[in-house]
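Section 4.2 – Deliverable D4.2 (structural model, holo form)

The reporting period included a commitment to supply a predicted holo structure for the target in complex with zinc ion. Inputs used:
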Amino acid sequence: MKRMTCFQDDFTVKTNKVKEIILITDQVADVVKRSGIESGICLVYAKHTTSAISINEAVDPSVRLDLVTAFNHLSPQLEQYRHMEKNSPAHVLASLVGPSEAIPVRDKALFLGTWQGIYFCEFDGPRIRKVCVQVLG
Ligand code: ZN
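Output (structure tokens):
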């Protein structure tokens, strides 16, 4: 039986707005390529409490802007919030969207759909963020 292998790397994402969606498909694909793993799973993980990882339409940038509009409606600032840091709307969105995505790796590449791309979702920027990638094969 073939032994399982794991390759890992991190990269940073500089965000420029309070809420922003940044495509990170190329950075993740680069880690997968360097891993040399032919078949397996790529885990993309953000180790933050006010950001998230998602997968969605990567070709038309207006989809990303529309999602930011939707996020603003989904999680407004509420008077009832108690958190001292005053960024509870961002914590709520981080939980709703989630900190990670798992993507199949086939033929040494991300097995994404034609229109799919990997999003880094900033909910409390601007900040310097870190994305961790684990490729298991
Ligand atoms: Zn907070």
